[in-house]
Structure formats: structure tokens, C-alpha cells
Amino acid sequence: MSDTRDTAKRKYYASFEAALADSNVPLENVDIARQVAAAIPHDTVYIPQQTKAYVALRTASERRLSATILAGHAWVRSDLAPLLGDLAEHQGNWWGVPFPVRREVERGSARGAVSLAAPVCGDCFVQLPVTGICDNCDG
Predict the structure, then answer these.
(1) Residue 68 domain-assigned?
(2) 99 in any annotated domain
(3) Interval 39-68 mean pLDDT
(4) For residue 44, is it within any domain?
(5) Domain limits for position 60
(6) Which spans in the chain are helix H?
(7) How many structural domains is the chain composed of?
(8) Whether the Cβ atoms of residue 108 and residue 49 lie closer than 8 Å to each other
(9) Model confidence over 6-47: pLDDT tens digits?
(10) Per-residue pLDDT at 45
(11) How do residues 90-133 score in pLDDT, each as one tens digit?
């Protein structure tokens, strides 16, 4: 692993664990994030300085990312997805790994505002208002 160092665009870490401790990944998602990182070959770990939106995993021999670990899910390159078994779901050129708690850091915020999915009516699947009573079907 590379040493912990700062650049204008990225902060590099000596280990995934060090980056995870400095990330926005909620505690409920840490175990699955560790499973992804353990399965994906990497020797470089960094977090983008401006957004701190994800932990990036890559190998020094390749110029492209192997995986990105966000607060609510991970993205893994298609050629590496078989290493994850049933954890990964195919989504275009990448494979996604959904985490138990789905929340994402808003773009441009550094370790701050978090948007959570709004509750949805169980009968008609319309987003519920603040009252919690569906305006569409009173469900």
C-alpha cells in the first residue's frame, strides 16, 4: 500500500482501514465495505480531497480504478466482479454492490450533509409527505 500522503486532489492512505476511518461510510455498511476491499486486488487507496465522496481502490500497474466504495454502495469493474460472487449486481460496464444502509453524501459537501431516501407508500408507491399519510390513496 502507498503511504498516507496528501495531494491537491487526493489523500492517499497506507491501508483501506485507514481510508475507511476517514470516509463517509456509515457503521452499518463497514463490514460489507471490508468484504469488497478484501476481494478486490489493490495496492493504492485514496479519497478525493474536494468531495470525499468515495474510497478508491486501484493497482499501481493500471491507470484505472478497480473499485469505488461510497457511503451506500460500491462500484466494481466488470472484470473483477466474479471475485465478489453473489455480492455484486451487473449494472452496465460496472457491477454494483448494494449496502444495507443506502445514503449518499451530497455532491460538493465534505463529510457533511446526507440525503436519505424519502418514505414511500406501501400501497401505491408514491413518495409520502411529511405527515406520513399518502395523498394519493390515504394509505
Answers:
(1) yes
(2) yes
(3) 89
(4) yes
(5) 5-107
(6) 16-21, 30-39
(7) 1
(8) no
(9) 577 899 999 999 999 999 899 999 999 999 999 999 999 999
(10) 95
(11) 877 778 999 998 765 444 444 444 444 556 666 666 666 766 67
Please tell me whether the overall predicted TM-score, pTM, comes out greater than 0.85 for this model: no
Nearest to 24 by CA among 118, 119, 102: 102
The span from the CA of 43 to the CA of 59, in Å, is 5
Residue at 85 is within a domain: yes
Per-residue pLDDT tens for 71-94? 999 999 888 989 998 888 887 777
Specify whether the CB–CB gap between 16 and 55 falls below 8 A: yes
- AA identity, residue 50: Q
Closest-CA residue to 99 (of 111, 107, 87, 91) = 87
Contact 82, 69 (CB under 8 A): no
Q: Which neighbouring-strand residues pair with 11?
A: 6, 47
* Grid coordinates belonging to 99: 449496502
Q: Longest C-alpha distance within the chain, in Å? A: 58
1 within 8 A of 14, measured Cβ to Cβ: yes
